[in-house]
Fold this sequence. Notes:
Layout: E1 3-7, E2 11-15, E3 23-26, H1 45-57, H2 66-82, E4 85-94, E5 100-110, E6 117-123, H3 146-163, E7 171-177, H4 198-205, E8 217-221, E9 230-233, H5 234-239, H6 241-253, E10 260-265, E11 267-268, H7 271-279, E12 283-287, H8 313-329
Amino acid sequence: MTKKILIFAVAIFIFVSCKQNNQQNTETQTEKPVFKKVEIPLFNADSAYYFTEKQLSFGPRVPNTKPHQQCAAYLVSFFKKYSKDVVVQEFQSKAWNGNVLNGKNIIASFNPESNNRIFFAAHWDSRPYADYDPDEKNHRKPIPGANDGAAGVGILMEIARLFSTQAPKVGVDLILFDLEDYGEPRGEKSQLEDAWCLGSQYWAQNPHKPAYMAKYGILLDMVAARNAVFTMENTSMYYAPNIMKMVWDIAANLGYANYFSTEKTGGLIDDHLYVNKLAKIPTIDIVHHDPTTISGFFPYWHTMKDDMSNIDKPTMTVVANTILTVAFMEE
């Protein structure tokens, strides 16, 4: 996969589609923030695991396929059980190879009447190419997409269930982006400059509600591998450093500092980039970084082994409790 550079006020190295990190120097925080005590609902990791597994049961959620359509229907039906305000945003986008893809962004809102809003997001589609699989014969096969997509959605599904009976004071939108992972496979050249994250690009330019605005957003991507480490990636730090520091401080206060590292790493092209650039909503990415792998991500990224055997309930709980605390701390 080729490297790309995005130019901001300063140069930031960003790698194609939520992908490829450059490690930077670690900085240690010296100030300890003071947090008020909040009560959060009890996150059920078994439920989140089940919701993740259920998505995989349809097969790879590749756009323009039957499993993609079936999973979309399941997700919409699920969120309508727990939210009275669900929007299905149907759209079409052109893929890296010129194919026209049919996408569906799914948005479930809680406290929809509130103008004080935040959002949590994940992508629900899965990659059509296992182009980092050790076996080259698999490079054009679709991945299961357990950690890379489904687990983040599973966490948001469990949060929706919790919010249906105990919602925070702040308005919260749960956004499932589609067409995130249909970028060009390794060795191919894209016909488009921005071939990844098509659903978030569409939503950022066509929000699900007129004049929609949120204080900030948190994207979940690859948040369920065993012993995951989430670093402070540079796109988040460029656009929303205060939000990232707040979330990381909350995680540390909860005892999760071994998961939420203060190491600064290279920026990513992921859904949050387009939300920041196009919608102007400060948004950060909670994403697994592993400097020991070729990709810089968890070992089974974009391989056929991205399956349920590598989904870890304790990691899901850590991420969920962190963002639940974020939501319930908001006034």
